[in-house]
Amino acid sequence: MGANSFDVSTGVDFQEVLNAVQQAEKEIGQRYDFKGLRVGIELNRTEKTLLISAPDDYKLKAVWDVLLSKLVKRKVATRNFHPGKVEPAAGGTVRQTVEIQQGLTAEMARDIVRIIKDAKMKKVQTAIQGDAVRVSSPSRDELQAVIALLKAKEFPAELTFENYRST
After folding, report:
1. Residues paired with 53 in a beta bridge
2. Sheet arrangement for strand 40-44
3. Which residue pairs from 114-123 have beta carbons closer than 8 angstroms and sit at least 24 positions apart in sequence?
4. Domains of the chain
5. Residue 105 Cα to chain centre, angstroms
6. Cα(11)–Cα(163) distance, rounded to whole angstroms?
7. Cα–Cα distance between 71 and 149 in angstroms, integer?
8. Is the pLDDT of residue 75 over 60?
9. How many whole angstroms separate alpha carbon 166 and alpha carbon 90?
């Protein structure tokens, strides 16, 4: 009997994030309460960040809420967005950098391995591979149990289960 495996990772589809940003900008541009105000949402794919800018904290929160609603509509994992501190910016405005979680952190990978080991599933092996964890077992049922176990836990980002292989 061969081994079955899958990878546990996390991430977002940047094209969907870009679409959500464009939709949010369009909505904000049409809103009466934002008329004539300088508001911005910039996606930086290489840095994996969003930079949100607005005239004040209240407007910044409103922009973030609009963007979150667009991300939810596009089925983008909002738990993968980690807003930083609101900072003062040029001309009396404020800005906030939002980190986008792409791939597991070393700490998350270790937590996943520990959770699986603590469950004492006899035939399941785990291996951390960069920003993912490879889970393998001869038993497909055990792999399904691992997915159910991980889905029941709270992580700082939404987990994805991909590259399912059966050999």
Report:
1. 40, 95
2. 40-44, 49-54, 94-100, 81-88
3. 115/149, 115/150, 115/153, 116/146, 116/149, 116/150, 119/145, 119/146, 119/149, 121/145, 121/146
4. 4-11+103-166 (3.30.70.860), 14-100 (3.30.70.990)
5. 12
6. 14
7. 26
8. yes
9. 55
Residue type, 55: P
Cβ atoms of 77 and 158 within 8 Å: the answer is yes
- List the structure tokens of 19: 């679409």
Helix (H, G, I), strand (E, B) or coil at 43: strand
Mind listing the pLDDT tens digit for each residue in 117-161? Answer: 999 888 899 999 989 999 999 988 899 999 999 999 988 899 999
Q: Encode 89-125: b = buried (16+ Cβ within 10 Å), e = exposed.
A: eeeebbbbbbebbeebeeebbebbbebbeeeebeebe
The pLDDT of residue 2 is above 80: no
pLDDT category of residue 1 using cuts at 50, 70 and 90: very low
Contact status, residue 129 vs residue 7, Cβ threshold 8 Å: yes
Strands (E), the chain: 4-10, 40-44, 49-54, 81-88, 94-100, 125-129, 132-137, 159-166
pTM of the model: 0.85
Structure tokens at 27: 């909505």
